[in-house]
Write a structure and sequence with these properties.
The chain is an alpha/beta fold. Helices cover about 25% and strands about 25% of the residues. Helix 1 packs across helix 8. The chain is globular and about 65 Å long. The chain binds flavin-adenine dinucleotide.
């Protein structure tokens, strides 16, 4: 591609059939993570001519979607909007996993364990009941009997969400992009830079290969890089934080410590630890949900820290006694792309009505991908109103 050449996204795939009121719009989606990938797929299915651009590829090791596994659960405290999205997302995950013949979702159930502070799980109870999400409530003693591999000390309340589980995170990003390509989408591996905004619109993005890409609509789903793509916001749209994921080795022949015999678990309270047993044979995953130090997603040092390993081991050995002395098999450093209030951002840029920003997954966004992409595709194509809960207005002083 000649440096400086402007290419229309329309020339990069898509059948060009009309949608809505006019000709099929040309859309460029920046980012092939959980948010961008699913949005592009839905846009393509709605007839738009879509090009995805990603600097390093779907589910790459720097991306927030780049881990082995991500939890999916409908328990979301008082926030019914997320429970509704998860119900839709889970149906879509299952439907696509079956259609693609790929085990992207593993149903293990999810166990929320709480001591003094059980608000989060208990606030979700009426919402789960209302939405028909299957769950049971247990006291600490009952939980200990049901799950003898868990030491129940200090747990007074547990919520067992039966249909929850985990998703094959980075693998699914690749799968979604493959489907998007098979359905007529186009893909460029390059870094995109937003173009100038004038007259309330953006006309093009420039790519790191020196070319430019014109389109009618741009969707920036750059995860933790949204902060540097759009630096002018106060507070910053997202703040990347350093998060460590540790995989410990179970003793041999212990399915009760793997996905066959143990749900995904979460312990709320003073510390918020969570884990995914088995994790597609990577090991017994343990992570601390507390927001870590600010992190540079491009060049940040991803070596695990001794302090995180020590804290995870101490917690794990207390709560799961059979894991005492377990070897550390793998460690990953990722980042949350934390929005100012921990909720998603799905809105147009205040200076350009054809520029959408989708991000702020804040440690919980992955599971929502298919439902978010479906919603956003409709919004981009003017077939659905913006969702005020995810608007940028909420940060206005
Ligand atoms: C350790 C950890 C555990 C988590 N656990 C869970 C969980 O259990 N359940 C859950 O639901 N969620 C979880 N999350 C959150 C979830 O993973 C993220 O919210 C979600 O993956 C974000 O997806 P995204 O598409 O917004 O961002 P990303 O996955 O980061 O994708 C952004 C993409 O944009 C590309 N990009 C960025 N800038 C540019 C540019 N200028 N040009 C071209 N390409 C660009 C990047 O290469 C990247 O591929 C977790 C996150 C982490 C880090």
């Amino acid at each position: 591609m000649a440096a400086g050449a402007a290419v229309s996204a329309a020339s990069c795939g898509g059948s060009g059939e009309p949608v809505g009121r006019g000709a099929a719009p040309r859309v460029v989606v920046i980012g092939a993570g959980a948010f961008g990938g699913w949005t592009a797929l839905w846009l393509r299915r709605r007839g738009a001519r879509v090009t995805v651009v990603d600097a390093w590829g779907p589910g790459n090791s720097r991306a927030s979607s780049g881990g082995e596994t991500r939890v999916i659960r409908a328990t979301y405290g008082p926030d019914a909007i997320y429970t509704d999205m998860v119900v839709r997302a889970l149906a879509l995950w299952k439907e696509h996993a079956a259609a693609w013949d790929d085990r992207l979702f593993t149903e293990t159930g999810a166990l929320w364990m709480a001591g003094d502070d059980d608000d989060f799980a208990k606030q979700a109870v009426p919402i789960l009941r209302d939405r028909g999400v299957g769950f049971e409530e247990l006291d600490g003693e009952e939980m200990g009997r049901r799950f003898p591999q868990i030491r129940p000390d200090g747990i007074t309340y547990a919520l067992h969400e039966k249909g929850a589980g985990f998703l094959a995170a980075r693998r699914a990003c690749r799968r979604v992009l493959d489907a998007f390509l098979a359905e007529g989408g186009a893909y460029r591996e390059a870094r995109a830079e937003p173009g100038a905004m004038s007259g309330g619109r953006m006309r093009e993005v420039s790519l790191s290969d020196g070319s430019r890409l014109e389109a009618d609509v741009f969707v920036f789903a750059g995860g933790p890089w949204i902060a540097e793509l759009f630096p002018g916001f106060d507070p910053p749209l997202v703040s990347p934080t350093r998060q460590e994921i540790l995989y410990f080795g179970t003793p041999p022949g212990r399915p009760d410590l793997a996905e066959a015999g143990l749900p995904v678990w979460v312990e709320t309270g003073e510390r918020f630890f969570y884990g995914v047993p088995g994790s597609e044979n990577r090991g017994f995953k343990v992570a601390d949900d507390a927001r870590g130090a600010p992190f540079d997603p491009t060049n940040g040092d991803r070596s695990p820290s001794a302090a995180a390993i020590r804290a995870a081991r101490e917690y794990m050995e207390f709560r799961f006694p059979a894991m005492a002395g377990a070897p550390l098999l793998e460690a990953r450093v990722c980042q949350y792309e934390q929005s100012p209030d921990g909720h998603l951002i799905v809105d147009t840029h205040p200076e350009a009505e054809n520029v959408w920003i989708a991000g702020g997954g804040s440690g919980h966004g992955y599971k929502l991908g298919p439902a978010l992409g479906e919603m956003l595709a409709d919004q981009v194509l003017d077939e659905r109103e913006k969702e005020p809960f995810f608007s940028l207005d909420r940060f206005a002083a």
